Amino acid sequence: MDTKARLSNDEFLLKVGELFTKQQESGTVFLQQKRLTEFDPVEKEHNPSPGNFADISAQGKKYPLLFRASNGASDKSKKIKYTTVVESDKLEAFWNKYADVVKGGVAGLKKKDKKKTKGKKKKAPAKGVSK
Questions:
Q1: How many Å apart are CA 75 and CA 71, to the nearest integer?
Q2: Where are the domains of the chain?
Q3: Which of 2, 35, 73, 118 is the most core-located residue (most Cβ within 10 A)?
Q4: Exposure of 116 by Cβ count < 10 A (0-12 exposed, 13-18 middle, 19+ buried)?
Q5: Where does this polypeptide localize (predicted)?
Q6: How far is CA 38 from CA 35, 41, 63, in A?
């Protein structure tokens, strides 16, 4: 799949559900969410002073969110990666659907079998050591 192509929100949810189904027996699903910002070049000769910082909360700008899902395969030919962008006004509806898909995928997981360890044995003093 072309990793640069972004899916629609509904198509992304379907693909994530399928990814969880494929990876249920053996495999990993990586989920990422982050704020999507436009490219903002940094000025090289900028000396910030304490009075120059703008109040970020006062800006009121809304940013879209980027959601990614991947199977985490290191081999590029086997790697599956899906991406979508959710606008901030549609986030609540998308998040509810996304949470349902993730909960459904996680329900199939089982705990790792941990070996029960017996109490630690005390080390015996080293033999042949004398002063």
A1: 11
A2: 9-39+61-105
A3: 73
A4: exposed
A5: Cytoplasm
A6: 10, 10, 9
- The DSSP code sequence of 14-75 is HHHHHHHHHTSSS---EEEEEE-----PPPTT----GGG---GGGT-----EEEEEE---SS
What is the Cα–Cα distance from 58 to 44, expressed in whole angstroms?
26
For residue 19, how many other CB atoms are within 10 A of its CB?
A: 22
Q: What is the pLDDT, as a whole number, of residue 100?
A: 93
Q: Which residues of 74-106 are buried (b: 16+ CB within 10 A; e: fewer)?
A: eeeeeebbbbbebeeeeeeebeeebeebbeebe
**Which secondary structure element, helix H or strand E, spans residue 104, and what is its range?**
helix 91-106
Q: Are 14 and 6 in contact (CB under 8 A)?
A: no
Report the share of the chain in percent with pLDDT over 70.
67
DSSP state of 90: G
Tokens 């081999």 correspond to 75
**Which fold, 9-39+61-105?**
3.30.720
| pTM for the model | 0.65
Report the distance separating Cα 81 and Cα 29, nearest Å: 10
